[in-house]
Fold each of these.
Amino acid sequence: MKSTEDILEINKRQKEFYNSDSKAKTNFVSTLWFGFRNGALSNFRSKFDIKDRVYDEHKVWLGDLSNKKVLDLGCLRGNALSLYMAKNAKEYIGIDLSDVAIGSLQKRIENENCPNAKAIAVDFLSPEFHHNNFDIIYAYGVLHHFENFDVLVSKLKEKLSTNGVIISYDPLETSFPIKVLRTLYRPFQSDKDWEWPFTKAVLNKINTNFKIEEMRGVLGKSKYGVFLNLLPLNDAYKSRVIAKMVNKDWNCTNLSDLYSCMHTTMLLRKI
């Protein structure tokens, strides 16, 4: 298992990766996967309101930000809610490894006249990041970047205020077909050193170290709706069946309900 020092070294490579030209990041297999993810899968998520549903839920979980100190962890150039949080929080700090991306986010913050917000290029695990007592840590597609999850958990607890919360969104590797696909793809994956989709063991660690106040499943049984949606069947029928699948994934009540899903979003409270 990687130590903190090992992870810091990997993160230096990760910084170079995100600062580099995008063409240097891809190979043929990656191009195929990105094409599917940003094509048919993205269209499916848009058609059935999956992506917007996640962001809308996150706004509910964020609540009134006027008295909250917010950390936007691994935000790159800014995610869909970065400026929303920057405008409304008592204090907002967005951080990412990439100084190029953070420079872009800082310009956006300045253009939107957000005096209580700033963007910093820094490693979350580094002692250089001395900020703490965050009421909210917003981590969209970030927590799965740490192979040693125990190191991450320790740092999250250190940075959260008493009773602070984490809002996360991450991929899962808990269903058999997805695990097989990820295993086949991994040898060709250019960012594999920092891509560690959640396993059942990681979900159990989350459950042990935090209070899971809310959890939602994304693309569980409904992932098969991608293919159903392509069949020459009645559109109303397809939409009705797929909508039921999407809602069943979304309204999960137990960790085991997430096992069939490709992604999960959670509201976690420090205990």
Amino acid sequence: MAQKKKVRLSDIAEKLGISTVTVSKALSDKDGVGDELRQQIKEIAVQMDYQVKRTNISGADGSTTGNIGILIPSRFFSPDVSYYWHIFNALSSELLNHGYYSIMELLSDDDENTFNLPRMIKDKKIDGLIVLGQTKDSYLEALNDKFSNFILYDFYSAKLPFDSVSNDNYFCSYLVTDYVISQGHKKILFVGNFGATTSISDRFMGFQKAMLENNLSCNAEEIIDDRNSAGVLIPIKLPSAKNMPTAFICNCDETAANVIQALQENGYKVPEDISVTGFDNYLPKNQTSVGLTTVYIRPEDSTKVAAELIINKITGQPYIKGRHLVSGSLVIRDSVKKI
């Protein structure tokens, strides 16, 4: 017997021809919806067997907020780095489909270093928290002492057993590197600071696996840094002409765009002279002069896992603890030349 499809807020909204936000407000008895429409929405929800989930452990008095916080280290959120804004929007939409609103707050370096809790936790505005982007273990430990209803997203702690959702960076980086090698490249360099994030270190290990399997030189000392140890992007320093590879494997699309710009400023053409790959499949239009070969892990896949994980955790429902990996696929465009 086929499993009954789970009804989402978007299904109710589509049936009534209204927005998902309006449906969510009506079902959670928030302001902004007329009484007649609110009643109609609730009746349709009952008819469609929509299951409302709410945490019962948030407030000391058993009250709930219907909100989930998304905490992003400020160093990963700037006008020049838009990927996390993209992920935040996808997370917000997925949470809304489960009947939860999202509240974003940036974590400054000072607050992280002094273990200052997010304002949304101090003010008791949220039932659960998603930490988006590599955060120090020491801060996570301090956070856990005060507020344990959180998960990590897009990174994990190698030393602490916190629940997390991240991309299968190791295998996907292996895929893109193996593809570049299949196109005849043998002298290939990795671009990314190995110690900056768990994502970058895993992507380097995938790169290393593909290189070693093909008996190609893979020296960790030849890694080209794209950011400092805190994760802040820095200018790309290209190797000398005699040490220039035929291809660069970059840890993300933003870095790949910066590498392409540096190559062009030094008179190289991509991919005619040197090939370049990225990771994430997310760049503003026209940021590169050539279609970038990259890895695509659908945000909808990983945000779905994250939303279900944090909601199950805060509502006390059974869930698989630990690391959750979401894989993706290779996107082949024009930035890799066959030689």
Amino acid sequence: MSFWEYLANRHQQLLTDAFQHVSAVFQCMVIATVLGVLIGVVSYRSGWGSSLAITSTATVLTIPSLAAIGLLIPLVGLGVAPTVITLTLYGLLPVVRNAIVGLRGVDPALVDAAKGIGMSRTARLLRVELPLAWPPILTGIRVSTQMLMGIAAIAAYASGPGLGNEIFRGIASLGSANAINQVLAGTLGIVVLALLFDAAYVLLGRLTIPRGIRV
């Protein structure tokens, strides 16, 4: 069976796996973005605090993703839980680092001006600092998403959702007629989804970042 015939015969399952893959990555990126920005907001004013935040989230990336999922299985079981925890933790570093860089890069004169017209610290953060720090934060989100698209494939090891199941099934049946087709379908599917995600972020940037501060 050719690759195109395999896609035609298995398109329903592949679409289901692709949807689950996108859903898992998107939901984990939302959690990682919220947590990452919060960590950045709490720590960016302190030298040691920001260093601790970046070092702690960077340490996660030194753990092989397959090992991380394997260690979580005895604690939370198979399926969605180890996938969500692993992807969220791996997605933190670029968001945290870029949030800190972005917030530190805001012109102090603008913050002082906002303070001078009576804005509270919370209002300055929400209406001045975070909007100006948004371009580097969005870049961090894009980097995290690209990483998680690949790492999510490993979740199939723990019976997680996504296109990794195609890849693992193909590897497990190497030598069979459709083994290469399965691995190729899963791999190309992830690449296509990653490109679509990135295109969506480019569009989001154009819609949310004023032309004068685009990077």
